[in-house]
C-alpha cells in the first residue's frame, strides 16, 4: 500500500504463498486475513469436503462461485467484505497515508529514545517496521556494575511499569523476553490517530512510572 516502504517486500513475488493480515496495519476489524497462493485450485484441492447439503453439483449457476469449499471454515471467506468496505471508504491513497504515518511515528519514537538517558535499544539499527523494542533502565539500576544482578532486576521493570500503566489507565505497551534478552518493551504503533505528542507522553509516562524501581 505504501510507495515509500514497499521496497521492504522486494522478492515477495517469488513466494509460493503469502499470508496477509489487513486486521493489523490496515486496522480492518478482526478477523480479516488472507492466504494468497500461486497455484490455482490449490485451496480447493486441499480443503474441499464436498458437503452435499451445501455444495450441490447440479446447481443452475457456475459452481466456481461456491468459494466456501476452498476453506476449512466455509463461512470465513466473507471476512474479506470488511476489507472491501474500508477500501471503498479510504481508497488506496488513504491506506497509504495511514501506514506511512504509523511508520513515521515509529521512527520518531526510535529517534527520541536511542540516545536518551535511561533507554537502551534491544536491536542495533533503525527498526524496519512499527515494532520498536527497547529497555527502560530506572536510575536505581542504571549504573549497576554487577551485570547478572542488573539483568535480574531489569527483567522485572517492564512488567511493573505495564501494571502501573493499566492501573492509572494512561497508556499500555506490551513487553516480552526474547531468547537470552530479559523483558523489554515492544511498542507496536498501528493506530493512525496517534500523534507525535502521544509518543512524547509515552516516553515521559514510562519514566514517571518507573523512576523508583
Task: Describe the 3D structure.
- It is a single chain.
- This protein has 213 residues and is of the alpha+beta class.
- It has five helices and six strands; from the N terminus they run ββααββααββα.
- The longest helix is centred in the middle third of the chain and has 34 residues, at 80-113.
- The two termini are 42 Å apart.
Q: Summary?
A:
By secondary structure, the protein is an alpha+beta fold. The protein is built from five helices and six strands.
Mean pLDDT: 91
Percentage of residues in strands: 5-15%
| Oligomeric description of these chains | single chain
Number of DSSP strand runs: 6
What is the element string, with H for helices and E for strands? EEHHEEHHEEH
Q: Tell me about the largest β-sheet.
A: 4 strands, antiparallel
Helicity level:
25-40%
Q: What is the terminal separation in angstroms?
A: 42 Å
Give start-end ranges of low-pLDDT stretches: none
Number of helices: 5
Structural class call reads alpha+beta
- Give the strand line-up of the largest sheet: 3-4-6-5
What is the CA-based Rg, rounded?
A: 23 Å
Give the CA-based shape: elongated
Family: Belongs to the group II decarboxylase family.
Pfam families: Pyridoxal_deC
Subcellular location: Cytoplasm, Cytosol; Cytoplasmic vesicle; Golgi apparatus membrane; Presynaptic cell membrane
Main location: cytoplasm
Amino acid at each position: 500500500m505504501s510507495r515509500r516502504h514497499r521496497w521492504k517486500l522486494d522478492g515477495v513475488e517469488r513466494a509460493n504463498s503469502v499470508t496477509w493480515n489487513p486486521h493489523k496495519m490496515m486496522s480492518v476489524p478482526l478477523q480479516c486475513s488472507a492466504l494468497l497462493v500461486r497455484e490455482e485450485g490449490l485451496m480447493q484441492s486441499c480443503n474441499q469436503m464436498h458437503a452435499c447439503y451445501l455444495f450441490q453439483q447440479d446447481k443452475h449457476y457456475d459452481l466456481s462461485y461456491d468459494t466456501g469449499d476452498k476453506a476449512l471454515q466455509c463461512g470465513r471467506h466473507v471476512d474479506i467484505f470488511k476489507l472491501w468496505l474500508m477500501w471503498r471508504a479510504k481508497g488506496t491513497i488513504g491506506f497509504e497515508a495511514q501506514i506511512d504515518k504509523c511508520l513515521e511515528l515509529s521512527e520518531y519514537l526510535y529517534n527520541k529514545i536511542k540516545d536518551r538517558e535511561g533507554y537502551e535499544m534491544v536491536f542495533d539499527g533503525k527498526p524496519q517496521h512499527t515494532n520498536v523494542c527497547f529497555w527502560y533502565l530506572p536510575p536505581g539500576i542504571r549504573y549497576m556494575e554487577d551485570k547478572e544482578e542488573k539483568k535480574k532486576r531489569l527483567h522485572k521493570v517492564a512488567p511493573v511499569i505495564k501494571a502501573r500503566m493499566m492501573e492509572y489507565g494512561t497508556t499500555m505497551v506490551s513487553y516480552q523476553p526474547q531468547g537470552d534478552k530479559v523483558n523489554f518493551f515492544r511498542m507496536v504503533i498501528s493506530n493512525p490517530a496517534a500523534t507525535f505528542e502521544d509518543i512524547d507522553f509515552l516516553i515521559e509516562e514510562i519514566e514517571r512510572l518507573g523512576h523508583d524501581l
